[in-house]
Amino acid sequence: MSATMLRLMPRLMPLLLLNTEPGFMLCPGPCLCYESSELVDCRSRGLDQVPLSVPHGTWLLDLSGNKVKEVRGKSFMGLWSLKILLMSNNSIHALHPQCAFQSLSSLQFLERLDLSFNRLRWLPQDFTQSLSSLLELRLDHNLLQHLDSASLADADNLRKLDLSYNRLQTMDARAFVSLSRLRQLSLQGNQLNALRDGLLSRQQGLEVLLLSSNNISVIEADALAPLRGLTLLDLKGNQLVGVKFKTFLKLQTTSTHLQMSLNPWTCDCELQRVFSKIQYVRYLHVEDYEDIICHAPPQQTGASLASMDSQLCMAETTSVLVITITVMLAVIGALVKAERNRKSRQSASDAESEEK
Fold first, then answer.
1. What is the mean pLDDT of residues 3-18?
2. N or C: the chain end with fewer CB closer than 10 Å?
3. Global pTM value
């Protein structure tokens, strides 16, 4: 053995011993492996694919900030201990069905998966087939346009789902039907135009529902009724011009905070009555009531609904009263005129009778 090798042996021995332990593979060249914490750090290493030599005992694998474009089969084979997989800020545009995450049978204990800030346009129907232990899933800041009913069908333990800042316009009515344990759902920054009845029918335990910065103009009558545990509902920055009081009254919760500003509200008596009633319900709290600004009618544009107190209803009542009095006067006038005409005809008839 050369003198150089002899000098290096003290440094190489710990590594050789470490990498010959049962179940342990050599650390991927560009990455850092921390054996004591079973963490593999491959952040921002310029990788264009998932490295194949990840140690089997890895608990956390961080691949964020690389150049991975596709996730294919066998990428994570043998990683039975993996609980956290971070792949944000890559260029992933495809999760190949029947091979990418279906082949994650070895990841049956995965609890957190981060695929945010990628370029995903769709999810395979079998996306969560082997991810039954998943608790948190981040898919925010992708290019998703539609959510299929089968894509999340097997994620029945999921607690937190982030689909914010995609391009979602539609979702199957049964898209969340398996997610009965969901506690937080983030859908802000999409292109949804309505909150439909039945979409959240299984989410009795949902605590946080974030829907800001969409195009929602309709909240159907029973859309919120199943949400018995809701503590925060964010509807800021949508296209709501009015809402129905009964829709929110069906929120039978202990305490729910509502955020509803930055919508193009039509400020009339009906809207004022709705918000007045909501604020009298002890468990409903409109956090940003002072920031609800009128967009119509023109004479109210820019004014806050709160600053008008009951003026809108008073004005409406006055208008109705004026119209009612005007109609009544017109009717009375018509009756008086009719009576005068009748008397005139009667007088003429009496005069003719006397002449005869």
1. 40
2. C
3. 0.81
